[in-house]
Amino acid sequence: MLPVNDSTFTHAVFLLTGMPGHEGDYLWIGITLLLVYIILILGNSLILFIIKTDSNLHEPMYIFLSMLAFIDLCLSVATLPTILGVFLFNSREIGINACFAQLFFIHFTQLAESTLLLFMAFDRVVAISNPLRYTSILTLPRIAKMGLVCVLRGFVFIIPLPLLLKRYRYCQDNVLSHSYCLHQEVMKLACSDFTVSSVYGLSASLSTLGLDSILIFFSYVIILKTVLNLASRVDSVKALKTCGSHLCIVLLFYSPEISLSLIHRYMNSSSHLLQIILGYINMLVPPLMNPIVYSVQSTHLRGRLIRIFVK
What is the pTM for the complete model shown? Predict the structure, then answer.
């Protein structure tokens, strides 16, 4: 790529994109997305409230669930202004620094959630493989340290992304293909060599999200091996049912995340609408479904929710 001289124009703003070709439906799409945001914010806030106020739920699994709800709320806050701004108010411009800040928080919360899902898999391994020592292994101080690891790991791996992007000039077309900023997209708008940023982004994804998914898979191998060795079929089914919620949210999180990452990097010729839809699924479906999945699976949570709404 040609070197950039001092006279090269650097865009001060990026232009966000909703769904090209569906501009006439933006109001209805925006209202639908607004309802989704309201439901997921209320759902995750309710999970936090119930776990905080009910001492019977102050157990490792529910503490991890409260952390997950908090992370989902943070992700929603990071994406809500620009997504609703594009569809409801046709507000497409985003400042370059605001874009860098948004992509940092999006990737940071996603990495923190991936780390937490790995810890939740460890929680299930301990609960099934070593139930008598469950509470002694997963103590409150240890869980707090795990939460700190989620934050620090996300910060250490993600903070280089906006710092690398700030070094580049953006003299090409400044239109993004989503209504929010992602590292992969912003990077490709640079008119200087972004090889370092590309290699680091891919390496960071593989060493975090990729590694987490592999470790979660092996966690379930251990769980399955333990369950198959149980003498009672009833106990085996009961043990597997405790993993159902976690397995569902793992699939909800990693499936669109991996698909979107591959499309952005290697399938630029694929359907642009497919990329956009996968992007919204990636941002909205896990935070929306996580509280629903756990409320359906957990008798304690379901009971508290029923008592709240019956009152």
Answer: 0.91
